[in-house]
Amino acid sequence: MSSATGTSTPTGTGTGTNAGSRSSTNTPTGTTTGTTAGTATGKTLTPGSASIAEATAAAQAPSVRAPSVQSPSVQAPSLPSSVPPPAPPPGVRRGSGPTARFRRAAGRLPYLLLKGATKSAAVVALLLLWEAAPRLGLVDRTFLPPFSEVAGAWWGLAADGQLADNTGASLVRSFSGFALAVVVAVPLGLLIGWYRPVADLLGPLLEVFRNTAALALLPVFVLLLGIGETSKISIVMYACTWPILLNTVSAVRHVDPTLLRLARSMDLSAPHLFQKVILPSSVPVMFTGIRLAGAASILVLVAAEMIGAKAGLGYLINASQYNFAIPQMYAGILTISAIGVAFNQFLVTVERRLSSWRVPATG
């Protein structure tokens, strides 16, 4: 009986081991089962047996790999070939470098030369006729010397300083009277054109004086103000006032009614309406009167200097006539013409700058 019991002991051990192996392989509680079976048969497992069973089971188990996730490659969309390059930042124009400006100027050079030749063709033809007529005997060269002699006389007056002195005296008188006329006539014209009661009050008086020639009042100015500079500047101011005043009144009265209605629909106050609409719209017509006044300032001054002056272009012309210095007389006349052209061109430039908002007419 005792030997049978001892023989059955290995069987219990083997059973516990197999049970533990099967449990460790198939169920997560294999270690507990194997230990319980061995204990039931009276045999204790070594402490490392459970770990060996687990390692064996892990080696025999199939390896499971997590599926690899491949991120799709994102590529930047390519611009089509027809897309234009990005625009330059505000305030920077394309081709604004020195090279681009030089190319534009070189491209416009033939046009500018042609335009200048067209404008100066008539003047050149007149000078050639002036030079040829006395030499060919068409006119008496005593009273109309060739242009070359007049140019020589002009150079002689410029060399000895007479031309500069007389021109400076005339310009001071002319520009002083012209400036005073602008300061007085422009505000008065705006006031008369905008406020009907003022126009009704001053209208008859203006009609009387504007039809009176400035040279007809020259003796009156000389008697009242003397023969000095005051009378000459005053007569120039009087002559320049009327073109500026009348054109300013007309400009204010003929502002586009559509602009006025639009401005009033925006609830603009009277000062803002006058500043934003009336003044800009009046600039072109107003400057027409200012240009006429610029020409009148020189013409009237020359006539005034011929009567009672000791310096000025009018005095130079009158003195040359008395002394029978005909080339010097024509030299003074040419100087007056050149000053008038330059002054008119200056006023045209100022007008373009002040009325740059206008869209140029295309035809």
Task: Please give a quick description of this structure.
The chain is mainly α and 363 residues long. It is 74% helix and 0% strand.
Overview of the molecule:
With 363 residues, the protein is an all-alpha fold. 74% of the residues lie in helices and 0% in strands. The chain contains 13 helices and no strands. It has helices at residues 2-26, 30-40, 49-60, 98-135, 147-159, 162-194, 196-210, 218-225, 229-253, 257-265, 270-308, 313-322, 326-354. Helix 1 (2-26) runs antiparallel to helix 2 (30-40), helix 6 (162-194) runs antiparallel to helix 11 (270-308) and helix 9 runs antiparallel to helix 11. The longest helix is centred in the last third of the chain and has 39 residues, at 270-308. The protein is flat and about 70 Å long. Residues 1-53, 55-59 and 61-74 have low confidence and may be disordered.
Descriptive labels:
single chain; flat; mainly alpha; disordered N terminus; 0% strand
CA radius of gyration? 54 Å
What would you call the shape? Answer: flat
Q: Report the biggest beta sheet as strand number plus sense, adding barrel if it closes.
A: none
Which segments are poorly predicted (pLDDT under 50) over 5 or more consecutive residues? Answer: 1-53, 55-59, 61-74
Order of helices and strands: HHHHHHHHHHHHH
Number of strands: 0
Approximately how much beta-strand content do the residues carry? under 5%
**Helical amount:** over 70%
Distance between the termini: 138 Å
**What is the subunit arrangement here?**
single chain
Class based on secondary structure composition and strand pairing: mainly alpha
Q: Helix count?
A: 13
Q: Give the integer mean of the pLDDT values.
A: 73
